[in-house]
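Obj: model holo form, ligand = FE2/S2 (inorganic) cluster.
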Amino acid sequence: MTVDTYVAPKRLDEALEAMRGGRATILAGGTDLMPQSQSGKTPLGRRLVNVRRVAELHGVVLANGALHIGALTTISELMASELVRRHLPILGEACEHFASSQIRNAATLGGNVCNASPAGDTLVPLVALGAAVELASKPNGAVSTRTVPLAEFVVGPGRTRREPMELLTAVLVPLPAAGSVQRFYKFGTRLGLDISAISLGLAAVREGRTLRQVRLALGAVAPTPMRSPGAEAALEGRPLETGVIEAAAAAARDDARPISDVRASAWYRRELVHNMVKRMLTDVAEG
Amino acid sequence: MSPKVEISFTLNGTERTVAVAPDMSTLAMLREVIGLTGTKYACGEGECGACTVIVDGLSLNSCLMFAADCDGRSVTTVEGVVDTPVGERLRDAFVQAGAVQCGFCTPGMMVQAKHLIDSLGASLDREAIKRGIEGNLCRCTGYVKIVDAIAAAAQPKE
Ligand SMILES: Cc1cc2nc3c(=O)[nH]c(=O)nc-3n(C[C@H](O)[C@H](O)[C@H](O)COP(=O)(O)OP(=O)(O)OC[C@H]3O[C@@H](n4cnc5c(N)ncnc54)[C@H](O)[C@@H]3O)c2cc1C
Ligand code: FES
Ligand code: FES
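Output (holo structure tokens):
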């Protein structure tokens, strides 16, 4: 199909209006869309809606106990954000591993989330941080918004719960409580331009030797980023001792449902999950 | 055929107005519509950096950028980079260090180096240079001479 209309609105309202007819493709940084449309994997719709000029979609602010990250915020901007550095260090750390300088300057957070790749680098830290996405549309003339937890939003490789008329406007991350401990780990062969064999994100609140509100996210071990309910239950409210750490690491290994591919076998991925969860928790216990 | 989109932007300091297909890349526009062939097409999918350009002060892969998105922005290609004092230093340093073999990666390396020098200045050390050119592949030199060249160009001459 060829594109018959290209629009580059400056206001959110106009962008949502342009998407009302359906069959619209949203363009943000283009780093996924260009190769995917050129290879024919995702042909462009009849309308190409470039949302990069919509001012409301840019930037990071702290409001009502949550960090509100505009969908058009780039990976470079996340790395430079003082709010991200202070409150969401594992998101900043994941961005360090992201592609190359040129791609980080173009790639947006909203694009990374909507592309829903099992290897999407921001998804694991965001799931660990309990993030949600905000979606807006204009079904019958009036703007309507809804919020969906990120872990529910991504339903499969490249598939999300976004409706065709909806625009992802922001990622909302609850402000981590005082005593928040966060850890991120990505296994790959080098820092940049690498697709991870597995990645892990941990966020919890430390009270003495005990962790509470534990969220452990696993990446690239299932069709979508997932939490490990077994490991979370093994850790919640218990002192971080050797036996507890081992039980959590074993539970995470059992929760993972990896495949074998060119990067690693399923067995190897499970062993990595076990060993790295153990190392991460030991590090937290000693820190 | 898709209808064309008319865009106006600054290219190497000069205002340009061109008509592009909505699905065309900035790289294709530069080479095929405007005829500036310094910016190279190699992988066409963001892996190699041969197509690097600077847009509003940030380096990007022009093969991944939609040409229509250049509207209202300022684009600098290698042809614009060599006209600047930093670009001249880079060109001399690449020759001095022997950092050019087949030369196919060189325009992208120079543009990325210009972006790194502009954003990090004299504090651009070898580690930061290596990190900064992770998205630029060279199949010939082994990178050492490229890093040498960029490090030399980062220090302004008296
Ligand atoms: C060489 C290369 C290396 C890469 N390395 C990495 C890496 O290390 N880690 C990683 O995670 N990713 C990587 N990527 C993938 C890509 O860069 C990211 O997924 C990026 O964040 C996508 O953002 P974008 O703004 O470029 O999205 P676009 O390409 O503009 O859009 C991506 C998809 O999301 C949709 N979309 C975008 N924004 C919205 C919105 N606000 N609302 C609704 N839908 C929207 C688009 O319609 C499209 O389907 C790499 C890509 C390339 C080409
Ligand atoms: S041609 Fe653009 S990155 Fe290789
Ligand atoms: S000099 Fe040949 S690719 Fe770099």
